[in-house]
Write the structure tokens for this entry.
Amino acid sequence: MTLRWRLWLAQAPLALALVLVGVVAVVTLNRLGHSGQRILQDNYRSVLATQRMTEQLERMDSAALFIVAGERERGEAQQAAQRAVLESELAVQEGNVTEPGEAEATRGLRAAWARYRTVYDGFLEARTPEDRRTAYFVSVEPAFRDVKDAASAILALNQDAMVHKSEALRRQSDRVNTLMVLAVLAAFAVGLVSSTSLTHRALRPVSVLSQAVRRLGRGDYEVRAVVEGADEIAQLGQDFNSMAEALQQYRRSSLGELLQAQAASQAAIDSLPDPVVVFGADGALLNVNRSAEGVLRLSLEAGGDVLGRVVPEAREVLERVRGHVLGGKGAYQPRGYEEAVRVALPDGDRWLLPRGSPVYGETGEVVGATVILQDVTRLRRFDELKNDLVATVAHEFRTPLTSLRMAVHLVTEGVVGPVTEKQADLLFAAREDCERLQGIVDDLLDLSRIQAGQLQLEVRSVSAEELVDATLDAQRSQADERGVRLTKRVGLEVESVDVDPDRLELVLGNLVGNGVKHTPAGGEVEVRVSREGTRVRFEVRDTGEGIAPEQQARIFEKFYRAPGAPAGGAGLGLSIARDIVQAHGGELGVVSAPGQGSTFWFTLPQQAAAAEPT
Ligand code: ADP
């Protein structure tokens, strides 16, 4: 059955109740009408007949009085006219006997009337007026009264019956009224109850369906709507079930693919030999690979403060890189191998170098961070070997180089005998190379000392201006040779700085020397000193060729020399300078662009860091 039919059907009880009440009303009204009609038929007809008969009788009586009074002709005509009418009215009454006792009364009337007629005929036959008068008073008048009484009795009988019947009719109509009200109420109640229940039953599948839709919306893909029948709702239920089935299958398949992709990516990061740690946008640990579990003892299953169980050095590095990447500063690249942290393991120490990269969401926002701790243990060992070698070589070179320089110097000065001009030229060149070699060996020794943690600073308060002057004086001859101007601008607010003056002169000398080397003739190298908050800022600006951005991070590495750099250096100057500045508790950096000169800067705390070994 279709839904439309069901809804129609649900209205049916109410409609039926309405029809029933209508029928009852028509039938009872009909019955009331009939009762009224019967009263008219049964009694009113008799009342009319007896009243008319009484009228005729009175006219006959007055006709008799006319005759007694001597008006014989008029009296006879009048009484003759009344007889036929009276007769017909009596016949009507005789055909309309309806009440108990009415039949005897009618028979009595008929008898009285017969007697009256006989007596009247006798009265008419009397000859003398005296006889007529006597006959009238002796027999006609009493007979007249008898007939009239009999008619009155029938009249009273019928009037009483009318009063009774109308009383009964009123009572019946009262009953009908009550009955109608009750019938309307009952029909309304029954109709309403059955309509409501039918409507409810017709619409129950809709509520079943809507519940199923709600559960599906909440992610319950198992839900199915059980709707029986063949109507529109059942059809809708079947369509819903097919949709839920399709969704469930899709979810199963997409879930499967997702799990597969997850397993593949887990296998990929597990295959990496270095520890990999993945953080969510809120900084919580999302994933680790097998190496991280082994080396850092990180485990997702353990729960609680997972990072808290990692060795403090590695933990500090992880938190720093995580903060950098999640703070929106982009990927984290280490500055060099010195950033590697040591983690002690049963099979020996490991050195781990951190790198971090952001994980971006669909709209480009950072939703996580991946940190790789690259195992640089072997590289560090090589580095240490190299440092040892450098230190040994520098150390071993030093004594022979000193005697070599001394010998060349003595020969050049002619202490051991005269030298020709040509010999002198060669000896000068040899002496210059010896000096350069000495510089490199000194650099190497400084470096190995710094790396071995033997850099001892002798900090004192010195005038910044004097420091700059000493440096510029040392570089002046070289600058003049290259046609480069040396200038200074020392802020009045900077009087003295707490530094190891020899070391700092080395730093400034390196920077100014580099500036002179890389600035063409006619250019300028300027040293500026200014106050910057609680720090003193040194700047060495040149008007030289500048440094390409990709070189800027690398020039501070040991032994790094930019391609095409003039010969003579070992690529150690900037590395040493940075180490010395850092040992003072400061920072060193560069601002440069190709063709626009370079500005090397470093800052020092006003009260320089103590002369701690680094
Ligand atoms: P070196 O002693 O070989 O010059 P440094 O460590 O002092 O080594 O410098 C490293 C590299 O940095 C150099 O090879 C050079 O290319 C570059 N560099 C240093 N200072 C400047 C400068 N002022 N202008 C341009 N390039 C520079």
Notes: The mean pLDDT is 88. Residues 38 and 44 are 9 Å apart (CA to CA). The longest strand covers residues 348-360. Residues 272-375 form a domain with the Beta-Lactamase fold (CATH 3.30.450.20).
